[in-house]
Amino acid sequence: MARTEEKKRQLTHKDYTVAWVVVLEVELTPAIKLLDDEHERLPRSDKDDNNYILGQSGQHNVAITCMPYCGTNAAAHTVTNMLRTFPNIRFGLLVGIGGGVPRSSETSPEEDIRLGDVVVSTPKYGHGGVIQYDMGRWEGDGHFKPQSHLNSPPSLLLNAIKELGSRHSLNSGRMDQYITDGRTERAAFPGRDQDRLFRSDYAHVSGNGCKTCDRQKTITRGKRQSDKPVVHEGLIASGNALIRSPQHRDKLRESWDVDCFEMEAAGLMNDFPCLVIRGISDYCDSHKNDAWQPYAALTAAAYAKDLLGVIQGHHVIAEPTATEKVNAPKQDSDSRLSAQDLAPLNDRLNILEQRLQTWDWKLGSMVDRRDSSGQVRELGHRLETLNARLDGLETMISGANSMQSRANQLNERVLELETAMAKATGRSLGETMSSLDYNRLDVSEYGTVGRIEAGRAVVVRKGGGPTRILFKQRFDRVPHVQITPERLSTKNFKNFWLYLYNPGWPCVDQEGFEVGSFIAEGHQIIFRWLAVEIV
Question: Which residues form a coiled coil (predicted)?
């Protein structure tokens, strides 16, 4: 689309407000081809070894650069130089290919992730849109706990994602047209028959294709109504290690419901306001090859251009520069939040700290008993360590960001103590359940609500009958209850929602509900629930 045959316009370094970062040549090609207008090159600043393609996309002047090699360190180096040369960059788009995380067989074809689809980094489960998979630890139950928290994309981009998603649902987006405009012979759609997902236990045979692989080992998936790529908004896992293991892929999906893997974003999210856009070119297994890369790179670039099209130029200019955002003291940005914004978070912290004090007393009394087991005594020592860590958190409280960090760490401690109590006592913890964040629960669909209770409890089934979780409050009538598992220790248990409108299984009475039917003996599960009494 860029006009290269005419004399190119030449702007100044200060005129460029959007950074477009790619890693591979196959990603650079559609980025250039989809420019509305290509500009004359400008000299680089001292010590900047990047090459730039400059141009216009919609209302924005865009600087495109291709990283010299993959990885988080290369990404950080590239962007540092870029911001030095183009001081008025407001945000960046990391656009290219990634490895997709297919869904379970129960997932609808449209919600399943297929080759050629696009994944956009979007905040979810308390994470900013990107999880660093090579910085954290694997728990005994197979759950991965990240050790670093990466920032969310700017609100300007998150709002644009919502608007564009609505436009796509109304078939008014322009992504499909941009795919047509940017298509080359190399970037043609390979055909859905070339989209093969092999079983996790079946390794690739040989070569750069799967011609010699056993087709009987592929997973049968539902057919979509259209071959058009689907856009998924969710978490992207990022790190320096190339993932070619379906076992690791599936574990991250089970732990955090990630949609995609890539290798650059983790090096940028905390030092550069940006959004990650990845076209799916493989399934992160040994069958990974290059066949889908050109088309996947094109679908990602088409979405990025469509996204820029819904953002007004003057809104971008009104944003602080990327350098200003990175260098701004955290308290400056926090001070723009009102007391009303901070109140729900304060309430949540108070609840968590009260819960910790309760467990402190309970575990302490258990340790003092003569018949206490060695396991319980060990839990007491762990509690002392946890409390010491919590004391250290007080020095971090200096605004909303520090409060959020404190809340996240308190949540981790609460979850750890819940598990410890369940293992030590062998009973369900309905009486020690912790409240959820009420602000994240949408109950408007239930009409007039009399009372609401939200909670979480660890259940370890020891056998000898069902396990019951008790409500803190007794309802006058059988409430409408929704239950969902938060974390599982067995793959035999599937995620689900229960909608209970009537008395009976598994909601026994107004005081609680039984969950033992769903848990194999010896297994542990953490339930979240929302109980609503309709009046």
Answer: 376-427
